[in-house]
Design goal:
By secondary structure, the chain is of the alpha+beta class. Helix content is 30%, strand content 26%. Helix 5 crosses helix 7 and helix 5 crosses helix 14. The structure holds 4-amino-1,4-dioxobutan-2-aminium adenosine-5'-monophosphate and magnesium ion (MG).
């Protein structure tokens, strides 16, 4: 089926014979013709009888050239006076110009100011992070933020397309939940008509029920953790895609992960190359991301850390510096599997002949970006799961439905959760996750 052609509603409403409304992204289709553009003034400079306006419309930016003798004196004056981020409509001829960033510029023949902006707080000079985060609603207009947020959207789209094509069914899980999935210390609590409810930490438990109903499923939504960590990798609200598969062991689970992630990276390279270049990303590093990824057991990882001079105690979880050391040895993301059962969640299936480790795996991104995926094989045995819930001090009542999955046709099953923001940070090659989501919720920041 051919894609549905959607006409921007402003264009549909336009019954005049004015030149067609164009989008900067596809301006090349109008080369040599006269079109209209609607957008905002990103920047401008003047040299006497010429005004150079950098106009952005959300799909891209273009230089619009206003010559004094081509427009009315009022229009020329308006172009001269208009401040950064004023909104406008310009009409003009689209000209090919190999020197222009997008390959085109516009020779303006008419100009209307829609709204004259007040002095815009974010100027091309350097601003501090707090200032920018306070103005996040305006900061997202910048070309760097455009590049990051477009790559984020591409990553999310590639993930869902890949999973849909592989026969996974999207089943969204609740945000308000009665119980914890990833430990009780990071729960956000809220009231629920006289009861307590928590914002979901992960859709996994519901996903397991969905997998027993539909085989291969995934959920994709916001998840919440009250993490008192102020690091470049932690958000209080982050997005996670969580596939879950019935009749699936740990090794099959890892194969899905490496295939999916490689596809996503190659898709971004294909469709968002310009944006990666805007961010100065080293593309050659991303081009290498193809399966299979190296696999390292927890035991081997501990050995590597010790050989590298780290005084690491078996049984502990890895910290960010440890993860960096482990990932640094590879150009590909690396799986660390079979962690100590004691440092993972209650549902992880212990290795039968060695129950002190479990069938869990984390995927560590290259270049020091740390864990981007956490997953594993789940306990399918009723008695063992009941025992684990008790050992973890979890309220059994809230998990009654979850235990039912081990009463009615229990099967080996596995799944994983990929954190979107950390994945975006790695693919974009940027320092901090706060720029990878439109409105980051970090420790102590709930504005804007
Ligand atoms: O390793 P985690 O805690 O795994 C789970 O939640 C499983 N229940 C998923 C599953 O098997 N269905 O989290 C998974 C991923 C991490 O690897 C990381 O990428 C991301 O979620 N993540 C965070 N990202 C940003 N800020 C935080 N506070 C995060 N906590 C986890
Ligand atoms: Mg984890």
């Amino acid at each position: 089926m051919a894609p549905l052609e959607v006409t921007p509603y402003m264009e549909a409403l336009d019954l005049t014979s004015a030149p067609p409304l164009a989008r900067i992204e596809t301006l090349g289709e109008h080369a040599g013709k006269t079109v209209r553009l609607r957008g905002w003034l990103r920047n401008s400079r003047s040299s006497g009888k010429i005004q150079f306006l950098e106009v952005r419309d959300g799909t891209g930016a273009i230089q619009a050239v206003v010559l004094k003798n081509r427009v009315s004196p009022e229009e020329f004056e308006a172009a001269r006076r208009m401040g950064q981020e004023s909104s406008l409509e310009v009409t003009g001829e689209v000209r090919e110009d190999p020197r222009a960033p997008g390959g085109y510029e516009m020779a303006v023949t008419a100009l209307t100011v829609v709204h004259e902006a007040q002095e815009f707080p974010i100027t091309p000079k350097e601003h501090g992070t707090d200032f920018l985060m306070d103005h996040r609603h305006l900061w997202i207009r910048s070309s760097r933020q455009h590049a990051i947020l477009r790559i984020r959207a591409e990553i999310m789209r590639a993930i869902t397309e890949w999973l849909d094509d592989q026969g996974f069914l999207r089943m969204d899980c609740p945000v308000l939940t009665p119980s914890a999935c990833e430990g009780t210390t990071t729960l956000f609590e809220t009231g629920y008509f006289g009861d307590k409810a928590y914002l979901t930490q992960s859709g996994q438990l519901y996903n397991e029920a969905n997998a027993m109903a539909f085989g291969k499923v995934y959920c994709f939504g916001p998840t919440f953790r009250a993490e008192k960590s102020k690091t470049r990798r932690h958000l209080m609200e982050f997005w996670m895609v969580e596939p879950e598969m019935a009749f699936c062991d740990l090794e099959e689970n890892l194969r899905v992960q490496e295939e999916m992630l490689s596809y996503v990276v190659q898709r971004v390279l294909q469709r968002r190359r310009v944006e990666l270049q805007t961010l100065g990303r080293d593309l050659s590093r991303l081009e290498k991301i193809r399966p299979p990824f190296p696999r390292l057991s927890y035991d081997e990882a501990v050995e590597i850390l010790r050989q590298g001079g780290v005084d690491f105690e078996w049984g502990n979880d890895f910290g960010a510096p440890d993860e960096t050391i482990l990932a640094e040895r590879h150009e590909l993301p690396v799986f660390v599997h079979r962690y100590p059962t004691s440092c993972k969640a209650f549902y992880m299936k212990p290795v039968e002949e060695r129950p002190e480790v479990c069938l869990s795996a984390d995927l560590l991104a290259p270049e020091g970006y740390g864990e981007i995926i956490g997953g594993g094989q789940r306990i399918e045995d009723l008695a063992l799961l009941e025992a684990r819930i008790r050992e973890h001090g979890l309220p059994e009542e809230a998990y009654r439905w979850y235990l039912d999955l081990r009463r009615y046709g229990s099967v080996p099953h596995s799944g994983f959760g990929l954190g979107i923001e950390r994945t975006v940070a790695w693919i974009c090659g940027i320092e901090h996750v706060r720029e990878t989501i439109p409105y980051a919720r970090t420790l102590n920041r709930l504005y804007p």
